[in-house]
UniProtKB/TrEMBL annotation:
Domain Enoyl reductase (ER): 45-372
A family per Pfam: ADH_zinc_N_2
Biased composition (Basic and acidic residues): 403-413
GO molecular function ontology, one term from the record: zinc ion binding
Name of the protein: Synaptic vesicle membrane protein VAT-1 homolog-like
Coiled coil regions, renumbered to chain: none
Region annotation (Disordered) ranges: 375-413
SMART domains (alphabetical): PKS_ER
InterPro entries with a match to the protein in the record: ADH-like_N, ER, GroES-like_sf, NAD(P)-bd_dom_sf, Quin_OxRdtase/zeta-crystal_CS, SV-ATPase_mito-regulator
PANTHER family: SYNAPTIC VESICLE MEMBRANE PROTEIN VAT-1 HOMOLOG-LIKE (PTHR44054)
Family per record: Belongs to the zinc-containing alcohol dehydrogenase family. Quinone oxidoreductase subfamily.
Keywords attached to this entry: Oxidoreductase
Length: 413
């Protein structure tokens, strides 16, 4: 029985399809009922909409793998889901998260290729931020022995997305140049590492000044996102660049297209400029939309430029390209075994610290990937902030300024 059953609707090229796996309703603990801890999003909005609570443990259906989760990846997209800032937001309450790593606990009927005890990483169409997940075997991959669970949770989405944009969409080759926004983030660092596997590739990285010391060695040229990077890039490369990878959108779209060389490729794979405050902002959305360059196809034709969009989760869950993604994952695992690439983990957080972790991403403070470590004990000052107060994940409103009084003390990897 395939988990995909809901009808799909059309959406923008940079947002994911939201057809989450249907979860059983929370039930009272009784007798043999099996429960698990999970992060539940009870409503769209700020951080107080997230709560760690108990839910009924899922069981694998036909073709599925049941995974005892060790670590989950946290992405900027998760912030947009929390705010309800994506096309077709999911029905609530829901367990967020799209990637995890762990140990196979059981398999469903007609499931081949995995055995109990296998160490795996997986894509999940929501529901990843929990102690147990079930997902189709097509979305599950065995981990190398040398890879930790935290590294695995930081590997799948970031490196597959980076590889496919560079090699499948933009056809990166020797001697080309790449400009990547958010160079200090998980995808940005994956892009930088993959570019280093091709001879003579020049990488222009755009990042906040506070991250420059940590990532300077990973790129060829590094610029502050708050200065006129266009002018600086043109000084070094007057003809522009071959590939632009843009996860920001807004005013950066026009800048990216302007910097493209003839036969260059601009790829939009996110819209983080739409997120400014803790909750959804119509003003930020309208401003970002207004700033987007109105692309004229005739101009693209005359200037020999290519513009593309990329959504890995849509590719998996909507377009059914799991075999293509698996072939890419096989190539990436070979590069990992050859020690040519290695996921960058920013910090580890307990499930109960999810609000603090999200705030770090919102503040653009991370270098690499933030990980929810399911087995990590929360810092006492943070623990009371996200623990359950109701069975359905409904939360009390927090006193204003409450978060400001708490220390943020994750385990920095």
């Amino acid at each position: 029985m395939a988990k995909e059953g809901a009808d799909m609707t059309e959406e923008t090229q940079f947002m994911i399809d939201t057809n989450p796996r249907k979860e059983p309703e929370h039930v009272e603990s009784s007798g043999d009922a099996k429960e698990m801890r999970a992060v539940v999003l009870a409503g769209f909005g700020g951080l107080n909409k997230l709560r760690v609570t108990k839910k009924a443990m899922p069981e694998p259906q036909d073709g599925e793998v049941k995974i005892r989760v060790k670590a989950c990846g946290l992405n900027f997209l998760d912030l947009m889901v929390r705010q309800g800032s994506i096309d077709n937001p999911p029905k609530l309450p829901i367990v967020p998260g799209f990637e995890c790593s762990g140990i196979v606990e059981s398999v469903g009927e007609n499931t081949a290729g995995f055995e109990i005890g296998d160490r795996v990483m997986a894509f999940v169409n929501y529901n990843a931020w929990a102690e147990v997940v079930c997902t189709p075997a097509d979305f599950v991959y065995k981990m190398p022995e040398e890879m930790s669970f935290a590294e695995a949770a930081a590997f799948s989405l970031n490196f597959v997305a980076a590889y496919m944009m560079l090699f499948e969409v933009a056809n990166l080759r020797e001697g080309m140049s790449v400009l990547v926004h958010s160079a200090g983030g998980g995808v940005g660092q994956a892009v930088a590492q993959l570019c280093s596997t091709v001879p003579n590739v020049t990488v222009f990285g755009i990042a906040s000044c506070s991250k420059h010391a940590a990532i300077r060695d990973s790129v060829t040229h590094l610029f502050d996102r708050n200065v006129d990077y266009m002018q600086e890039v043109q000084k070094i490369s007057p003809e522009g660049v071959d590939i632009v990878l843009d996860c920001l959108c807004g005013e950066n779209t026009a800048k990216g297209l302007t910097l493209l060389r003839p036969l260059g490729t601009y790829i939009l794979y996110g819209a983080s400029n739409m997120v400014t405050g803790e909750t959804k902002s119509f003003f930020s959305f309208a401003k970002s939309w207004w700033q987007v360059e109105k692309v004229n196809p005739i101009k693209l034709y005359e200037e020999n430029k290519v513009i593309a969009g990329f959504s890995l989760l849509n590719l998996l869950f909507k377009h059914g390209k799991c075999n293509l993604v698996k072939s890419v994952m096989d190539k990436l695992l070979c590069l990992f075994d050859q020690k040519k690439i290695k996921p960058v983990v920013d910090s580890l957080w307990a499930l109960e610290e999810v609000k603090e972790a999200m705030q770090r991403i919102h503040d653009r403070g991370n270098v690499g990937k933030l990980i929810l470590d399911v087995e990590k004990s929360p810092t006492p000052l943070m623990a009371s902030d996200s623990t359950e107060t109701s069975e359905a994940g409904e939360e009390e409103e927090e006193p204003e300024g409450d978060n400001d009084s708490k220390e943020r003390m994750p385990f920095i990897h």
